[in-house]
User: Fold this.
Amino acid sequence: MPTHLTVRGLVIRETAYGEADKLLDLLTEHGIRTVRARSARKPGAKYAALTQLFAYGEYCLRQSGERYYLDSAVSLNLYYGLRSDLEALALASYFSELIRRTATDQPQPQLLRLFCYALHHLSEHDRPPMMVKAVFELRLLTELGLMPDMLCCKSCGEYLPASVLFRMEQADFVCADCAGSEAAAAQDVPGSASVLQAVRHVIFSEYDRLFQFRLKNEALPQFAEYTEHFLLHQLGGAFHTLKFYRELTGSGEPGSAGAV
Ligand SMILES: [Zn+2]
Assistant:
């Protein structure tokens, strides 16, 4: 007996299948489900928009054994602003690779939430793409239980030093005074007090305030360099979508030294 279920989901991968079908990787609150959408590639297909990459909707699925089939779908957000912006699309693809690398069978509703917030800002073009990327990386690690210890300088206990050194191996920071007395590891990243405050904000904020901050001048690239280094250090391996994003934006190798 097939069973029916309705889930909120985001299409994070679409693959052509058979004559005119698609296989969708749907990120739901219960994890990733692979769903077969029959005839989705036929001209004029009813759910063409909802079976394309980065569509977010409510999907009615039929489960038969281990397989899921799409019965019907209702749109929640198609993120139209993404579709004409190659940089935004490249970042969304990078987020998708990160999620596919780290998602488990366990329910992780925060991952779907994070992805949808990030796509919203990429689509609306109301935050710098570099900021959306950095917030996504750091909050993803936080949701996975890999957040850094940002309480205070690990050596002297100062809460908000004017400048700090973010340490990768220790997943913490020391103030510039304490850092002066020890050799920094190659992949460690310096930052200002405003970068430290941004890092704390992204780790602890509620979702509705997650993207509600601004970083001026060199603080944003510092923040972005830190989150990328920290993510690569924590997750290891290489991400080909990140390489593509760097080639597209001319941003070079990952923070040069020490990247995995
Ligand atoms: Zn210190």
